[in-house]
Structure to design on (916 residues):
C-alpha cells in the first residue's frame, strides 16, 4: 500500500539497516506457531532503543500505517500476524538487562530479553524470574499475552510479575507505568491495562519484573488416580490445607500412554498428578508428606516423592517429554491446541467432558493441565494436509471454550485472543467489550496498533 | 443547583425512602476521616440493587449531576467528599454476601459488605479474606482505593485479591469484568482498571474476591534493633531466604515509647519489628527460628516468639495499641498521617530522613510501617485548632512524598489520591496522566463520576 511505502521511505534514513524489506525477513514475520493464514508485513523494523520505537510509531501514525509488535514469534493464536500489512516491529535487538536489584526483588529489562536469558543473568543473585510458558519467549511478548505456565499456581502469571512498564503509545509518546514500590494507590492501573493488551494499545519498551528467591530445596512427587475427579479433588484439598504447591501438573491416560511408549517408562496408565514443592529442607518434606496423605485419601496410588535432583528429573520425565511423546503417537502430525481455564470446582467435569468429546471424535487427543489454576490444554493430533481433520479439531476446541464460558471460565487461560479467539470476546465479556473498544479508540484513534485484533474486532 | 433538584425529583418515585435529603444525612456524607473541608451532597441515595444504581447513574447522566460513591466513609484523602455536590451513593444497604465457593477460594459480595462481616460469614469454611486495612471498611471502598494493610506482604493488596467485578459505568450500563477462573488471557484487564479508580470510572456493584486458607498455626515474634537500617536489612534477608512472612510491622522509638507509657509495657525503646508467620505447626516454628537467626545477625536483641494465642497477643500488644497510644502522647491531638511506599532498598534511608525531619520540626511524630512492602506511615501530632501546626504537618508530609518519588516510590502506598494528593499525580506519573485522562474522558465524557478527582484534576 502506498502509505506503507511512504512510511518506509521516511524511516530508512532514521533506521538504516534496522529497517528490512527483504522477502525472507518479511516472511519470517508473517506467521506465528498457529495454523492461521500468514500475512506479510511491508517491512520489518529492528529498533535498538525506545527512541527508534518512537520514530517508527510517529511515522506510521502520520501515514496511518499498521504497527505490529513481534517478540520471538512463539504466539499461538495469530497475535503477531500483520493481517493489514504495515511494519512489524521486532524487539530482538532490544534485549539488554538494564538493572537487577536483588534487595528490591526486581529486574528492569528491555522487551526482547527472554526468560532464560534473564534467569542466566540472575544466577549469582539467589533469585529467579518465575514465569515459564514453555518456549523461551521474550518478556515483552509474555507481558503482552499475559502469559503464565506451570509455576503460576505459586508465583502468579505475568499479571502478578510485571510491576511497571515503559510503553510507546500510539501517538509516539513514551510513558512510564507503575513504580518500583511493591504497592501503590495512585492513579489508574495502566500497567495491568498494557499487560495482556496484545500490542493493541502501544509497544512495550521496558519492563520492571518481580523476582523470587530460588528455593533452598525442591521436592517433586507423582501420583496416579483412579479417575480425573479424584485427581482434581486431591489438588483442591492440598491447596485448602495451605500447602503452597509450586507446580501441579495433570496428564490424562492418553498422555501417560504416549509418554510410556516414547520415553520407555512404565507409569500406570491413569490420570496422574506431578507435584513440585519449594521451601526449606524440612518444609518441602512436610509439604510432600501432607500431599501424600491427601492423595491417598482421594484414591491416589503409587505416590513417590524425592528431593534428589536425578530422582526428581526421573519422576517428572513424563511431564517434560510430553510434547515430543504426543507428536510420536502419530508421526508427522500437527498438534492443534486448546487452552481454557475454569473455576477449579468445575475442572473435573470440564476435563471429563473434553475427554468424552475426544473419545467420540475420529481424532486422537490428549489433555494436560496446570490444574492448580484450573487451566488445561487439549492437543488434537491432526494431519496438517487434511482440512476435515482441521475442521474437526476446531469444532472440538470451540466446544471446549463454550463449555468453559458456561461455567464462569475463560476462553483462554494463557495463550490469548490473537485472531483465533476473537469470536469469543463478546460471548465471554458481554458489554464490557464496548468499554474495551472505547479505551482502544481513546488511546489509538487511528487504529494503527496491531489493527484488526483485540479492542477493534470481536 | 437546579439540575440536582431535577434529578432528585425524577429519582424520588423510583427510590422512595432510599433517597434522603435531610441535613443530618447529607452532613454525614460531606466528609471523610481527613481534615479536608467538607462539602454537602444534594442528596444521599441508598440503593439496594444494581438496578437502583443504574437508575441513579442514568438520571444523573441525563442532567449532568455528579455521582459520588460512598462506603463507610473511612477514606483518608477526601475520596468521598462531593466537592461539586450531586448525589452521594451509599452502598450501606448493598451488603449481601451472595456466594461463597470454598473449592474455588472465592466469595461474591455486594460492595457494602465489610471485611469483618465477610470473615464472620467464612467462619465454617476454613478460609479467610486477607486484606486488613485497619478500619472495618467496605469491600467496594477498599477496592476503589486499592487498599491493603498488614497482610499485603504475604497475601497481596486489593489488586491481587479482587478477581472480578460488576460495575455500573457512567452511562448506566452494567458490565462484568474478569471471570471466576484464576487466570485469563482474554481482553483488556478492566478489573484492575476499576480497582484503584476511586469511583471516577463507575460504581462497583459486585465483587468476586479471593479467599485464602486459614493457617493451621500462627507464630508471632518481636525483635528490637540498634537502628532502622539493621531492622530493614533483617526484613530483606528474611524475604530473600524464602520465608513467606505473613506480617512484618515496624515501630520506631517514639512509637515504642508511646506504647510503653499507654499500655504499661517495658519494651526496649528502639526500632522494633513485629513478625507473624502462617503455616503448619512445624513450618511456623522453622520460620520463626530462621527469622531469629537473621535478626541476630543484623544486630537484633530480645527476639521472642510464640505460637500460644495469649502470648502472641502480648507480643503484638504494642502494635495493636499504637493508634490510641499515639493519641495519648498529646491528649486532644489529631493525627496527621503520611503514607508512602518506596523500593525496599531505599526504605531505611527514607525512614531515617522522615525521622530527621520530625526531629527538626516543632511537632512530635512517630513512624510505623508495613516494612515488608516498603510502605510506612508517619503520624504528626497536631492541635486541630492551630493552623500553623497543620501547615507544618503538611510540609512534612509533602517532603515525605517528594523524597519517595525521588527514589522510584509512590505518593501513596494504600491511602490513595483522593483530593489531598492530586497535586502529586503528574510528578509521579508524568505523561501517563494524559493517558489516564483520555481513559476517563472516554468512559465518562460528561465527567459525572466523582468529579474533580483522579482522571480529571491533577
Amino acid at each position: 500500500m502506498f502509505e506503507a511505502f511512504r512510511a518506509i521511505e521516511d524511516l530508512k534514513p532514521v533506521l538504516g539497516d534496522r529497517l528490512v524489506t527483504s522477502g525472507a525477513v518479511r516472511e519470517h514475520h508473517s506467521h506465528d506457531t498457529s495454523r492461521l493464514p500468514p500475512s506479510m508485513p511491508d517491512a520489518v523494523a529492528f529498533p535498538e532503543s525506545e527512541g527508534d520505537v518512537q520514530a517508527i510509531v510517529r511515522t506510521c501514525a502520520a501515514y496511518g500505517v499498521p504497527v505490529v509488535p513481534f517478540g520471538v514469534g512463539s504466539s499461538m493464536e495469530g497475535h503477531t500476524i500483520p493481517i493489514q500489512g504495515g511494519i512489524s516491529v521486532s524487539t530482538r535487538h532490544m534485549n539488554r538487562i538494564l538493572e537487577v536489584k536483588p534487595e528490591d526483588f526486581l529486574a528492569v529489562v528491555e522487551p526482547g530479553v527472554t526468560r532464560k536469558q534473564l534467569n542466566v543473568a540472575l544466577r549469582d543473585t539467589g533469585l529467579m524470574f518465575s514465569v515459564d510458558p514453555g518456549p523461551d519467549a521474550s518478556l515483552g511478548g509474555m507481558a503482552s499475552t499475559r502469559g503464565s505456565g506451570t509455576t503460576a499456581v505459586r508465583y502468579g502469571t505475568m499479571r502478578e510479575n510485571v510491576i511497571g512498564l515503559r510503553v510507546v503509545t500510539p501517538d509516539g509518546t513514551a510513558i512510564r507505568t507503575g513504580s518500583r514500590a511493591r504497592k501503590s494507590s495512585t492513579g489508574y492501573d495502566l500497567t495491568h491495562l498494557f499487560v495482556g493488551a496484545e500490542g493493541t494499545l502501544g509497544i512495550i519498551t521496558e519492563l520492571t519484573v518481580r523476582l523470587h528467591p530460588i528455593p533452598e530445596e525442591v521436592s517433586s512427587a507423582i501420583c496416579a488416580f483412579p479417575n480425573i475427579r479424584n485427581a482434581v479433588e486431591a489438588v483442591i484439598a492440598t491447596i485448602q490445607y495451605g500447602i503452597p504447591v509450586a507446580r501441579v501438573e495433570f496428564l490424562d491416560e492418553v498422555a501417560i500412554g504416549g509418554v510410556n511408549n516414547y520415553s520407555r517408562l512404565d507409569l500406570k496408565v491413569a490420570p496422574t498428578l506431578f507435584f513440585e514443592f519449594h521451601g526449606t529442607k524440612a518444609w518441602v518434606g512436610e509439604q510432600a508428606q501432607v500431599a501424600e496423605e491427601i492423595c491417598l485419601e482421594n484414591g491416589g496410588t503409587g505416590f513417590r516423592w524425592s528431593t534428589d535432583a536425578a530422582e526428581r528429573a526421573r519422576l517428572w520425565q513424563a511431564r517434560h517429554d510430553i510434547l515430543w511423546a504426543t507428536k510420536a503417537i502419530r508421526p508427522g502430525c500437527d498438534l492443534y491446541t486448546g487452552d481454557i481455564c475454569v473455576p477449579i470446582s468445575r475442572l473435573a467435569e470440564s476435563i471429563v467432558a473434553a475427554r468424552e468429546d475426544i473419545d467420540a471424535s475420529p481424532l486422537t487427543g490428549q489433555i494436560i493441565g496446570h490444574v492448580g489454576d484450573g487451566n488445561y490444554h487439549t492437543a488434537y493430533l491432526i494431519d496438517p494436509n487434511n482440512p476435515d481433520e482441521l475442521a474437526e479439531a476446531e469444532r472440538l476446541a470451540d466446544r471446549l471454550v463454550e463449555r468453559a464460558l458456561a461455567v464462569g471460565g475463560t476462553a483462554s487461560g494463557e495463550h490469548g485472543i490473537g485472531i483465533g479467539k476473537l469470536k469469543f470476546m463478546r460471548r465471554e465479556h458481554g458489554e464490557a467489550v464496548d468499554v474495551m473498544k472505547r479505551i482502544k479508540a481513546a488511546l489509538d484513534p487511528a487504529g494503527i496498533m496491531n489493527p484488526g485484533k483485540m479492542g477493534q474486532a470481536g
